Amino acid sequence: MNSQSSFSSTNANAKDASSALHILLAPDGYYTYLGIEKPVSSHSSLLTKDNQTKETKQELDLTAIQKNYRKLSLRLHPDRPTGDEDAFRVLERAKHVLMTEKLRKQYDLLGLDLEDDDHSDESHQEDEDGVSNEEKKDGDGKPDGVLSHMASATVAAFLQLAVRTAMMAVTSLYITKWKYTTIPAIVFMAYTSNKIRQAGKEAQATTGTSPITKYDILSPLLVAAGVLIMFYAKSDSYNDAEFEWNKLFWFGEALVMTMFCLNTVTAKEGSSLRPSIGLGIAFYIVFSLIALYIRGKGWRYITFLSIELVCALVAVLVFPVMEMIMETIVDEKMRKIGDRVRMYSKVMEDNHKKQIEELERRLAEAGDKGASVPASPSTPSSSAHVELD
Q1: pLDDT per residue over 160-191, tens digit each?
Q2: Which among 285, 283, 250 is positioned nearest to 266, based on CA atoms?
Q3: Contacts of 227 (CB under 8 A, 6+ apart)
Q4: Is the same domain home to 120 and 234?
Q5: Are residues 125 and 31 in the same domain?
Q6: Taking the CB of residue 383, how many other CB atoms lie within 10 A of it?
Q7: Cys bridge to 230: 148, 181, 252, 316, which one at CB 3.0-4.6 A?
Q8: What is the spatial distance between Cα 177 and Cα 183, in angstroms, rounded to a whole number?
Q9: Which tens digit of pLDDT belongs to each residue from 124-161?
Q10: 171 burial class (0-12, 13-18, 19+ CB within 10 angstroms)?
Q11: By residue range, what is the domain housing residue 99?
């Protein structure tokens, strides 16, 4: 008798845990199971106005969420007889989502929590001040999406290009103009190349392998050669009135541009490009055309620098607007999908209830028919036998 009662209680507990899990995983189940009324304005877009956001905060009772969570967690805790590990984990996730504004807005779009459990556990960890990792990552609540990374990479590329253009302008216009600036620049490049070579030898002697390549040693020397060529081209054709551009200066200017770009691209972290003769020739052809247009003139360098800075400014302004537009479009699509999901879930629940009611009705009819069935033939024969006796 005790075993039957324990079995029935275990079965009832399993049903309670499974029903709790079923409610939590249903559309808007976090609100339903925690007994929280879903705010009307919470179903709006992530780009709602500030006054609407304030209204959402006022309508959602965070204290009620914590209070109901404590009651339900005592029932579903794995250490309790009525507990279940999966249901308790989902309940914890429900409380975290409803308490976090950004996650709650994402949850309200579909009515479903699409976040990975492992990721949610990591993001739910808090520091001493009670700030979660997710809130640190998205401090202002804005999503750190693909367009944000593209914007950062684009702006960084334009700014880096502007710095290289400014360095090239200073080298072409001023350093190669006087020997008092050209000679120290060449000496510094030679010193840099020598230090790189010594570092390679020390690494070879210590570890047996050296990360320093021949290109790393020759790169400063090639820059020095380009500076020297530009200096001689200016000294041969220099006129007090105006500098006369020539092919020798063109060669030196294109060489320095190529080395600047090659060092930038190949030294970038994560870049798959490595210095090679083919890549150097390709860059030299491109920068030869650019140097052919610039011809050592300062106003053309300023034009290039202005274009690069304007492009960086445009990227700063355009990418956030694109991100807002894409976010709005995605939110509208997700909201429509969420409405369809809720509608489909309601239809399925109604069908399930109808099937259960139909099954109960049939069982009741079967029970009534069984009660009205006449006695079996053995019964009257036995009674007749008794009467005969």
Answers
A1: 888 989 999 999 989 988 889 999 999 999 99
A2: 283
A3: 171, 175, 176, 182, 185, 186, 189, 252, 256
A4: no
A5: yes
A6: 11
A7: 252
A8: 11
A9: 455 444 445 554 444 444 445 677 888 888 888 888 88
A10: buried
A11: 9-42+56-138
